[in-house]
Amino acid sequence: MLTDTHTHLNARQFDADRGEVIERALQNGVSRIINIGFNRETIPTSIELTETYDFIYTAVGWHPQDAIDMRADDLDWIEELCAKEKVVAIGEIGLDYYWDTSPKDVQHRVFREQIRLARKLGMPIVIHNRDAHHDVVQLLKEEKADEVGGVMHCFSGSWETAKMCLDLNFYISFGGPVTFKNAKQPKEVLAQVPMDRLLIETDAPYLTPHPHRGKRNETGYVRLVAEAAAEIKGVSLEEIARITSDNATRLFRLPPQS
């Protein structure tokens, strides 16, 4: 029973066949999905998915690329939505220094505000970090994010950065890149992450794993990530599925699976 801890099934790339994509995920052994709503457009559609499918949950937050568009009432809206039973985290939030869409100071402010909201509500956070390893860790420390913890989504940093995140009470999640033949660093980091802090994801429709690289990613492909993780860890696919699903249950406070 696999858990995809980060996907975007409400993305426009799935408009033509969303139901079929979800059915294929179930056929591939995916029993639970955390879908991500990250701005004014995607949060309502992510909530709608949770109301349609009993095995889909959501995180809601404001993506750093869209930080410049966030208003004070948006933060109030996110707080309201967090009262819903199937909203299990605040995210994805963080810093993105690759895309020049929101100034760094605005990203920092919005990131801090959402960490503070998570601490107020006692909810875990889902971190987006692109080319901003030092600042992400620094802000997490300054805002005492270790009080709620969370997950470093699609981790791409070094083992040194991963250790700092583990010390801050975060889980480390891996997606499609860990299946790439030339992905030396993600494989080395995954090998060292403790089993009880390991998560897997797809980030579909992005970051498609091998052998489908270059095509649209799907939630069902989390099985390929699990297979790669099992090989790196030297355990069975069933063991990786069980452990990462147990970790997701613990982090997101999901109902136990039968």
From TrEMBL:
Q: What is this protein called?
A: Hydrolase TatD
State one Pfam family annotation.
Answer: TatD_DNase
Specify which residues bind a divalent metal cation 1 according to the UniProt entry for this protein.
Answer: 6, 8, 92, 203
Q: Which GO terms describe its cellular component?
A: cytosol
Which positions does UniProt annotate for a divalent metal cation 2 binding? 128, 153
Q: What keywords sit in the KW lines?
A: Hydrolase, Metal-binding
Write down the species.
Paenibacillus flagellatus
Q: Which NCBIfam families match?
A: YchF/TatD family DNA exonuclease
| Molecular function as annotated in GO | DNA nuclease activity; hydrolase activity, acting on ester bonds; metal ion binding
PANTHER family per UniProt: D-AMINOACYL-TRNA DEACYLASE (PTHR46124:SF2)
